[in-house]
Amino acid sequence: MTLEQLRIFVAVAEKQHVTQAAHEINITQSAASSAIAALEERYAVKLFDRIGRRIELTDAGRVFLVEARGVLARAATAEKALADLAGLKRGSLSIYASQTIVNYWLPPFLAIFNRRYPEIQLKLKAGNTQQVAIATHDGIADIGFIEGTIDDPHLSVRTVEGDRLVIVVAPNHPLAGKETLEVADIKAMTWVMREQGSGTRGEFETSLKDHGVETADLNVVLELPSNEAVCAAVEAGVGATAISNLVAEAGLLAGKLVALEFPLPQRSFYILHHKERYASQAELALLELMGATGRPPVRRREKAV
How many Å from the N-terminal Cα to the C-terminal Cα in the chain? Predict the structure, then answer.
């Protein structure tokens, strides 16, 4: 058994598709199929069920996936230790983060990091809070960034200043000119929201409970799976939304959105790292950069006088 075979097996297991996995790890489809067949033949165990054009992990495959990820994580840790001897002149850093962080908060930091350490390869993937935590726990991610809290004793959690939720509407919304929203307004408005389970929506609903507003009190007329789709619907006049100020900033500056005043708390982001895994110089350099660099507050378009 080789590390390459393990790498191929994990890729196929995660994609549940041989061709897609082969493309992702830059090998041919035949090479991926051969690696899986060699493992199954060598150990006389079936790792995948072939169901039409789909493949699914067998029970044995699911057990083996946990061990394969562990071996690859330990190999990656050893490689990072050696790469550190080069003093940030080679190596890689695998990062998993949630949607708002990936699209809005993290890129400026990664751009600065890349300019300072161009020889370090950055690998960035998006996922929800649970997916990021699992990837960090399993060693797939060196470091994770999430918007919500998690409960995993194997992971260290570091808090950093994140964003603030803001309520926004289209400029022609009936309440666009109101200085401060009241609880009665919140209950009367129509809302465009992220899907159930999103960090943004959960944070907003939790904040409203402090004002005596329950989730059932909201008139949600549209649920959408991305921040961009939500903003587009609000700009079109479908209703109001509560969203990260980082997401809303472009629309506010362009005059396509108007921010309404309502007391919502500052929100923290959380950095995850496995307590028992090696923290490379690259990871520490990124964290140091984040501690020394801040983002400017959201700017709002001035109202016409």
Answer: 72
Q: Six-digit token pair at 58?
A: 């067998």
Q: What is the pTM of this model?
A: 0.61
Do residues 29 and 18 touch, judged by C-beta distance below 8 A?
Answer: yes
Q: Which residues of 67-93 are buried (b: 16+ CB within 10 A; e: fewer)?
A: ebbeebbeebbeebeebbeeebebbbb
Handedness of CA 269, 273, 275, 279 (dihedral sign): negative
Distance CA 110, CA 173 (A): 37
For residues 55 and 18, the answer to whether their CB atoms sit within 8 Å is: yes
- Which residues, 6 or more positions from 166, have their beta carbon under 8 angstroms from its beta carbon? 242, 243, 244, 245, 248, 259, 260, 264, 298
In the chain, CATH 1.10.10.10 covers: 1-85
CATH level 3 topology of 163-266: D-Maltodextrin-Binding Protein; domain 2 (3.40.190)
String of DSSP letters for 178-232: -SB--HHHHHHSEEEEEPTT-HHHHHHHHHHHTTT--GGGSEEEEEESSHHHHHH
- Does residue 205 contact residue 212 with C-beta atoms inside 8 Å? no
Domain with residues 1-85, CATH architecture: Orthogonal Bundle (1.10)
pLDDT tens per residue across span 144-201: 999 877 889 999 999 888 889 999 999 999 999 888 999 999 999 999 998 887 778 8
- Cα(33)–Cα(18) distance, rounded to whole angstroms? 7
Q: If we measure between CA atoms, which residue out of 128, 133, 264, 249 comes closest to residue 203? A: 264
Encoded tokens for 176: 């666009």
The first and second tokens of residue 178, run together, are 């109101």
